[in-house]
Design a protein that fits this description.
heterodimer, A: 327 residues, mainly alpha, 15 helices, 76% helix, B: alpha+beta, 2 domains, ten-stranded antiparallel sheet, three-stranded antiparallel sheet, 3 helices
């Protein structure tokens, strides 16, 4: 309990659960829809997720794991892979769509101008709205992150294989040659990126949604921009999954298992690093793809850049929300 | 952002430590592969099969504490390969599971082989176990649908069924099964007419291996 309190104390004031503005936003969101509607939404969502899980399990039983093609790793990973990737994508879309009416709702209630004239009111409202999204989606985030934590533990256990030389075996003959310590650091960097990337991408989308809602004054144009982002992300996600499926079915004899750029794009725009959470799959990428050993480290760097961008977007949204004359 | 940075660094450090710890535990917990590899003296588990007649081998296996009691037997005219004689036994190093093995002799050495009479019989080892114990081989060669790792100094040939194989290319992974260990105890008899060199290659690491036809 103390550790939890200590961790929460490190959050900025607007992101703490006890913050009045954040609490108000969460309570308001809860009251926006009746209990029945919320229950129905949850039941339908859970039903769809279970259906996708069962379909994935069926395909695995048929020896045709979805998207993974010629996969010989953990059965649990093969079954959970596509449902988790789809859930992550769905959560990203929800994150960009939730803040669509942030300013409009406050304006409709006539509270926006009052908020703005209080000290940092507009700025705090935007930041609290961003933090509220994580609280609102906590169960979705738990479903996404718990399996990843399990896979991370599984990777560590798999590292003990071959008399503890599993990593050493795959470092021989790869391009570029890396010493053991660097290989270990790159593996850990990839695991870190895979664990945190979904959170960063969801945070990025939420900040983008808030920026569009505050920076673009005309709601119709903001909606069009939001639609364009959703279509773009959907296209990128579909393309990445399709490329992964094609790559996994391509004959290994042609060495056409994609370049390190393909794998990086796939990690960022496709499964958000989920594939890197199977040790055998990651090691096979190191062996098959030139510079594949660097993909984990590059994903981590790209994720840090995304986090900085998110910070800037949030700052921009907060600044625009504080400007006078927004009607 | 600062908190995020610290959390990221902390997570990365924990995972580096975790990975290093897992590697260390693996090295401490499993010091030797489940099935012993022949030593530099060309003997296996203390038994020098090259210098022993089949009856003596049988007697030695029967008293070995790591061979399942009553499992060692001489097989005459083992078909389809026609090995004669061959010795079958079950390797059981103190665990509940036992591994059926065939032992037979060649002109210049002996073979320890997965018992192929039943498809469900497991391989002797995995390729990764061999490389973890002996290091990279001197050369890798391709013979039909099998890949051989050659350890010249140990006079040992390790035969593996790779994950996939097409023409002069094979995909070898650490989990691929070792089906035969060939211990060369004496030099091969001189080749009088032709010498056939199988396509071979220096060790390139796991993954795709391309073989050349030149020796």
């Amino acid at each position: 309990m103390r550790a939890h309190e200590h961790l929460v104390a490190q959050f900025p004031t607007w992101a703490r659960p006890g913050n009045p503005m954040l609490r108000y936003m969460l309570q308001r969101e809860e009251r926006r829809h009746s209990r029945l509607v919320r229950l129905a939404t949850n039941v339908i969502g859970a039903g769809v997720l279970i259906a996708v899980l069962l379909f994935s399990y069926h395909m695995f039983q048929e020896d045709k794991p979805l998207v993974l093609g010629d996969f010989h790793g953990s059965p649990l990973f093969a079954v959970l892979y596509v449902p988790l990737a789809l859930l992550q994508f769905f959560t990203m879309l929800v994150a960009i769509l939730i803040p669509a009416n942030t300013v409009a709702l406050e304006q409709a209630r006539g509270t926006w101008e009052t908020l703005k004239i209080t000290s940092h009111g507009g700025e705090l409202a935007i930041r609290a709205r961003w933090a509220a999204e994580f609280y609102q989606m906590r169960w979705l985030l738990a479903i996404i992150l718990v399996p990843r934590l399990f896979f991370a533990g599984r990777m560590l256990v798999d590292l003990t294989a071959y008399q503890g030389r599993h990593l050493d075996l795959y470092l021989i003959g790869i391009t570029p040659e890396v010493p053991l310590a660097v290989g270990l650091a790159l593996l850990a960097a990839g695991m870190t990126a895979s664990l945190v990337l979904p959170l960063v991408l969801i945070g990025f989308n939420a900040a983008l949604g808030l920026s569009l809602a505050t920076v673009i004054r005309r709601r119709q144009i903001a909606s069009l921009c939001r639609l364009a982002v959703v279509i773009g992300e959907g296209f990128g996600f579909g393309l990445a999954l399709l490329a992964a499926d094609v790559n996994s079915r391509t004959s290994w004899t042609t060495s056409n298992t994609g370049s390190w750029r393909d794998h990086l794009f796939f990690a960022l725009g496709g499964d958000h690093g989920l594939r890197l959470m199977d040790l055998r799959t990651q090691f096979e990428m190191w062996a098959d793809v030139r510079y594949g050993v660097l993909v984990g480290g590059l994903t981590l760097i790209a994720m840090i850049v995304l986090a900085l961008l998110t910070n800037n977007l949030l700052h921009m949204a907060a600044r625009h929300a504080s400007l006078p004359g927004r009607e | 952002m600062k908190l995020f940075g610290w959390l990221l660094v902390a997570l990365c450090v924990v995972l580096i430590a975790g990975a290093a710890g897992a590697r260390w535990i693996g090295q401490r917990a499993q010091t030797a592969p489940a099935f012993p590899l022949p030593g530099e003296d060309r003997c296996w588990d203390g038994l020098c099969f090259s210098a022993m007649p089949p009856e003596e081998v049988l007697a030695a296996l029967r008293v070995s504490p790591r061979v399942a009691p009553g499992s060692a037997a001489i097989l005459e005219g083992l078909q389809p390969a026609g090995y004669n004689p061959a010795v079958a036994f079950r390797w059981a190093p103190g665990t509940n599971r036992s591994l059926p093995v065939l032992l037979y002799w060649a002109t210049n050495g002996y073979h320890l082989m997965r018992d192929w009479r039943q498809d469900s019989n497991p391989p002797l080892l995995r390729a990764g176990d061999v490389l973890a114990a002996l290091g990279p081989p001197d050369r890798v060669s391709l013979q039909a649908d099998q890949v051989s790792l050659h350890y010249a100094s140990r006079r040992l040939e390790v035969v593996i069924v790779p994950s996939s194989i097409v023409l002069d290319r094979a995909r070898l992974l650490p989990g691929d099964g070792v089906i035969r260990l060939f211990v060369i105890s004496t030099d091969s008899p001189p080749a009088t007419e032709r010498v056939y060199y199988p396509p071979s290659s220096p060790w390139q690491g796991f993954g795709l291996i391309r073989f050349a036809t030149r020796p």
